[in-house]
Every structure is written in structure tokens, then in C-alpha cells.
Amino acid sequence: MFSFARWQRTEPAPAAVPRGLRVYAIGDVHGRLDLLDHLLDLVEADGAAAPELVKYIVYLGDYVDRGPHSRGVIERLAEGPPPGFGAIHLKGNHEASMLAFLEDIRVGPNWLTFGGTATLASYHVPPPHADSPPEDLAQAQEQFRLRLPPAHRGLLDSLRTSVTIGDYLFAHAGIRPGVPLERQREDDLLWIRDDFLRSAADHGKVVVHGHTISPEPELRANRIGIDTGAFATNRLTCLVLEGTERRFLST
């Protein structure tokens, strides 16, 4: 007599971060220092209940533009994380545009249109109109260079485009599906939308991202989106990862 083994379908193991580690991923701040301070208070209180764990905050970028306190947000990040936490700061497309304007006034009209005026105002630089002549843009650029503190420029220049922790990859906007994670282009990590958001592919890691606003955090098999539009909704969201657990803190 022949006996046949019954094959059982097994589900893939759930994504996890390494044992002994808790990760707090914070979405797009966009100049809302008030919300960032509130959320960091929540994070610090949450972390205090687990003193035995290593705790990291991963900021997903877009600290500046749109909201009124871009300078204050960069100052807060430059001061370092709360006691007992490490921090990883990722670059968003808005930081990329801001840094590009410091080198090339031709970036100015687009950056000013999608939020740069608020950032310049927060640094006490009178913002020109997007259609201002080149000499006005150059004057704003020069004033911005002078009024950007070295610690702020140092933080901005040190921003990373992605980081991998356990089974998760963190990037501001997402990744290009079908491209190996180690070969992703910065432009996609900072700007991609539809091709990434519509993809059901297994990327090899669960991608945690901001960049695209949704009323609630978006949990998909291959990605978690946590940009809840803080500058307009007053809701800044933090994803908390520990082992295979996922939960959220929010203002």
C-alpha cells in the first residue's frame, strides 16, 4: 500500500524586527512642531514602560514646508532624540527640494509652489512669488543660506534615503517594484507614488513609508503607509514595531 503525505499550505512568517528592539516610525511632519512635540511625549511615555528594550525613532522625512514651523521642527530634530532613544532621519522629497534650492534658483518656483514659502518664512526670509524674476529668487537663496544654522544644514546633509531593520524597509515615498532593494534610485525612494502604491508584489521587505496622505494608516501585505496629513488634519501618526507586533500612536 502506498501512503501519501498530506501537504499543508503554510502562511509566510509575519514580518518582525529583531528581538529586544522597538521601532517608532513617524510620518510626515510638515512644519507642525506642536504635533511633533506632542507625539514625542507619547513616544517617550510609551518607551518608559519598556526600559529593557533598545528603542529607535525612524523619521520618514518631509519635516519642512506647508506648516508654519519648519525651522522649529529641524531645530527639534537637531537637538537629538528623547533620552534612551536612538534616531534615524530619512530624507523626504521636500527636504530634497529645499536643499536643491540652496544650490540652484531654478528649483525655486516649483519648491515655492508646493510649500517652500512657509519654510522660508519660518527662517525669517521674505518668500518671493513663484513667478518672481531670477534676481528675487537669488536674493532669497542668499538670505536662506545665511539664516540656516550650521546644525540645521548638518542634519539636512546627513539625511538617509532608506534604512532596513529586520523584515522592514523604511523610505519616504516607497520603492520601485521589481528593482532589487539595494539598487533603488533616490528619485523613487523620495517621489514614487502610483507604481508602488498599486503594486501587490512581494518586495522582499515590508515597506514603511509616508509621502501619500490617507485618512488612516494603510496596512497592506507589502507596505504600511503612515502619512495622515498632519499639516492639515492635526493628526501625526507613529507606527510602533516590536517583534511581530504592530500598533499606532497618534496626536
Name the features:
globular; alpha/beta; 35% helix; single chain; five-stranded mixed beta sheet; 251 residues; disordered N terminus
Would you write up a description of this structure?
- The protein is α/β, with parallel strands linked by helices.
- It is 35% helix and 21% strand.
- It has nine helices and ten strands.
- Helix 2 packs across helix 6 (150-157) and helix 3 packs across helix 4 (108-122).
- The longest helix has 16 residues, at 33-48.
- It is globular, with a radius of gyration of 20 Å.
- Mean pLDDT is 95; it is low at 1-5.
Question: Could you outline the blueprint of secondary structure elements for this entry?
Answer:
Blueprint: E1 21-26, H1 33-48, E2 54-59, H2 70-78, E3 85-89, H3 93-103, H4 108-122, H5 134-147, H6 150-157, E4 162-165, E5 168-171, H7 186-191, H8 194-197, E6 206-213, E7 218-219, E8 223-227, H9 230-233, E9 237-242, E10 245-250
Parallel strand pairs: 1-2, 2-3, 5-6, 6-8
Antiparallel strand pairs: 1-9, 4-5, 7-8, 9-10
Summarize this entry quickly:
With 251 residues, the chain is an alpha/beta fold. It has nine helices and ten strands.
Using the alpha-carbon principal axes, give the shape. globular
Largest sheet: 5 strands, mixed
- Which class best fits the helix and strand makeup? alpha/beta
* Share of β-strand residues: 15-25%
| Helix count from the secondary structure assignment | 9
Rg on CA atoms, Å? 20 Å
Strand order, biggest sheet? 3-2-1-9-10
Q: Would you report the number of β strands?
A: 10
Mean pLDDT: 95
Work out the helicity level.
25-40%
Report the uncertain regions.
Answer: 1-5
- Cα(first) to Cα(last) distance is 66 Å
Instruction: List the secondary-structure elements in sequence, H or E.
Output: EHEHEHHHHEEHHEEEHEE
